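Duplicate of #3305? Posting structure anyway:
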């Protein structure tokens, strides 16, 4: 039984922090109603469809001001393929708690992000623990 417990403890191979983020832009100045644009991790933004280019927003390492959202630029309209690193990654704004921010053009936006940790257990260790438990 001690072997099983030891194997399960060893099986906690990684504790990783994931950062969830979301950006919403509204046509009004108070963030009410349906957003005209919503971006989040793995979202494809067709920023120049007439030129056949798009941006894919990916991971964020920390939910802190000025940390950058990894972004790739694609020479197609649907973010397919590997893409190239975007030379102007998007920074996390100072206000990142979902507060409504008024833009100079009369629109508004909200940026929200939060981090959470998750533990992953190796399938191999679980199988090994079951086998050893039956011995």
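Output from current build:
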């Amino acid at each position: 039984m001690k072997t099983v417990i030891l194997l399960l403890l060893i099986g906690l191979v990684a504790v990783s922090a994931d950062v969830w983020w979301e950006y919403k832009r509204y046509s009004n100045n108070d963030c009410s109603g349906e957003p005209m644009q919503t971006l989040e991790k793995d979202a494809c933004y067709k920023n120049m469809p007439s030129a056949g280019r798009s941006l894919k927003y990916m991971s964020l390492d920390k939910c802190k001001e000025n940390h950058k959202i990894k972004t790739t630029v694609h020479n197609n309209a649907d973010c397919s393929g590997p893409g190239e690193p975007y030379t102007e990654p998007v920074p996390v704004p100072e206000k990142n708690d979902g507060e409504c921010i008024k833009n100079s053009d009369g629109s508004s936006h909200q940026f929200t992000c939060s981090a959470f940790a998750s533990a992953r257990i190796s399938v191999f260790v679980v199988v090994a623990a079951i086998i050893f438990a039956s011995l």
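Confirmed duplicate; merging threads. Residues 4-16, 117-125 have pLDDT under 50 and may be disordered. The helical segments are 2-10, 123-133.
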